[in-house]
Design a protein that fits this description.
The chain is mostly beta strands and 567 residues long. The protein contains 6 helices and 35 strands. It binds 2-acetamido-2-deoxy-beta-D-glucopyranose (NAG) (7 copies). One 2-acetamido-2-deoxy-beta-D-glucopyranose (NAG) binds at residues 443, 445-446. One 2-acetamido-2-deoxy-beta-D-glucopyranose (NAG) binds at residues 431, 441.
Length: 567
Amino acid sequence: SDTLLYPYGPQYQDRSTPKADDGASPQISISEAFYFYGKKYHSLYVNNNGVVSFGQPVSQFTPDPFPLTDGRAFVAPFWADVDNRITGEVYYRQTQERQLLQRATADINAYFLDERFTATWVFVATWDQVAFYGSLSSKVNTFQAVLTSNGERSFVMLNYKDIQWISGQASGGDANTGLEGTPAQAGFNSGDAEHYFNIPGSWTPHIINITSTSNILDPGRWVFEVDVFVVPNGCAYKANFLPVSGIFWVDPTCEKRCQCMPDGRGVRCQAESCSVDEICHPAFQYHVCQPIRRASCQLLSGRHHTTFDGRLYHFRGNCTYVLSQMCAPSHNRSLEYYRVEVEMSGAAPGTSHIRRLHVAVHDQEIAIPANATGHVTIHGIKTLLPVALLGGKVRVRQSGFSVKVVTDWGMEVSYDGKQHVMVAIPVTYHNSTCGLCGTLNGNASDDFSTPNASLVTSVVWFATSWKAKDVEHQCGEISQLLACSPSEQAVYSSPQYCGFLKKSPGPFTACAQLLPPSGFVESCVYDLCESGGDQRVLCEILRVYTEQCQAANVTVGQWRSDAFCGG
Ligand SMILES: *[C@@H]1O[C@H](CO)[C@@H](O)[C@H](O)[C@H]1NC(C)=O
Ligand SMILES: *[C@@H]1O[C@H](CO)[C@@H](O)[C@H](O)[C@H]1NC(C)=O
Ligand SMILES: *[C@@H]1O[C@H](CO)[C@@H](O)[C@H](O)[C@H]1NC(C)=O
Ligand SMILES: *[C@@H]1O[C@H](CO)[C@@H](O)[C@H](O)[C@H]1NC(C)=O
Ligand SMILES: *[C@@H]1O[C@H](CO)[C@@H](O)[C@H](O)[C@H]1NC(C)=O
Ligand SMILES: *[C@@H]1O[C@H](CO)[C@@H](O)[C@H](O)[C@H]1NC(C)=O
Ligand SMILES: *[C@@H]1O[C@H](CO)[C@@H](O)[C@H](O)[C@H]1NC(C)=O
């Protein structure tokens, strides 16, 4: 009546292995040939330490991970230091009894849908409530290996009913808990270097939970065809189980993408890298492409800065400034160095102050000039876009109106050649950035940090401290933007001017939910005050905000007309 374990015990004429440390059954001749990874076997051994072996018995009590280098062929339902002298029995029998053949036939046909299989031979080995070597506890394990064949095709079913310990005392385990030490290994080793399989959790503490894992949606049961290697509902790749449709990359730079195909068609691989919004990340034995979480910093019309942590401040400068750079502790080698500098010039009110953007990363020096599309300079040499440097570690391309620089580690810098610069850095740079974009640690209060890491309150002091070192032209003084009078403030905040961004319903309503426009409105009011309400200034800000919305895939309603921003 047990649905997981096949029937076992003396009442089914099972034999028992000797009660001996690291003992095994005698060589058992089998009545039907068993093909195991292309080799044909006529006998096997049931070993106390949780292994059914071909060719020779196994007395090794501390398991090794597969593949073994010494060519031993075996099935390991739970390879660990069993001690049946303390308690428990290791039973086995081979049978051609009709009822059991029918059960094996039905099970295999339910798991392997391709062609009909009729079992002609079944072998059942059961470790019933066995203790571990050196045990001072009452912990016992019960598990089973079922081998079945029709003389040509062969299958192995591993059933785990109750697993309470994972290592013996001589394998470093704790005598009271049966944990710690070198944990049990479960799976197969064909004897060659290619065909082997580790059940997930093998050789780790997670193997204690093998009773709740499965490749056939039946917790505690693992089933494999072993004449040729087939894993139902998944694939084996380098000995590890992958669910159907599982996608992974084999290399640490994510260039070869592999997928476990349905219907036993195995693993297919092709050249494909992560998308630009993803980063290659180690995962278990492989690598996966994961979406990058980034924080972004913005500079609008060369005067309005929003830090990574969301602090908005304003100044007018006439110099080259460090927008952002990596400034992690020097011992942290896991972060790539980068530096983004912006070159500003005093310009007439209402026009941008930005002259050029400099990006230094992976020892590349990229300069994006204002008013230029389709080219940048790299190490001072004019270069047409798109361009991929260092085999794609740094890519520069035109994206809409903006030039975009992206790196393999997830940095994204864009400049529209006019009003808007954006620097986006992965959040793994937590507390490791400095410059006008601030500290990237979720705390806007410490963003005004100078190169010597002291906090200041004055915008002028803060900005002055981030003047770039090697500036060619004479730098003028930094000035704070003049605040508007209350009456100007009221006029320019209204829906006829900057408040248009917040008008609801209005062309920006959908976008405002995703990109709150309050920073744009505040910056817009400054610029309109400065320019005395110049409509062209307003149009530029609306244009930049529209481009931000479109980059985020939000549709913006029509807002230009003949009378407003020129149709
Ligand atoms: C085993 O599974 C339980 C329940 O899901 C979980 O709490 C525990 O952390 C797991 N143990 C190990 C070693 O993975
Ligand atoms: C870019 O073009 C605008 C408008 O034509 C002009 O006002 C500005 O000075 C130019 N900027 C640079 C750096 O050439
Ligand atoms: C180095 O940076 C990585 C990535 O952000 C971080 O996980 C790690 O804790 C840092 N190490 C030190 C010593 O700061
Ligand atoms: C971030 O840096 C500040 C100043 O160096 C330090 O006091 C703080 O503990 C850091 N925070 C984290 C989460 O590393
Ligand atoms: C944010 O930074 C300020 C200035 O360093 C510090 O006083 C404050 O405790 C920080 N807040 C948090 C939540 O870390
Ligand atoms: C750090 O920088 C601030 C502002 O730039 C300056 O006033 C202060 O003297 C500097 N402190 C040290 C220790 O250099
Ligand atoms: C916008 O849509 C395009 C095409 O569907 C997609 O490739 C891109 O990732 C989307 N961008 C964002 C920010 O969702």
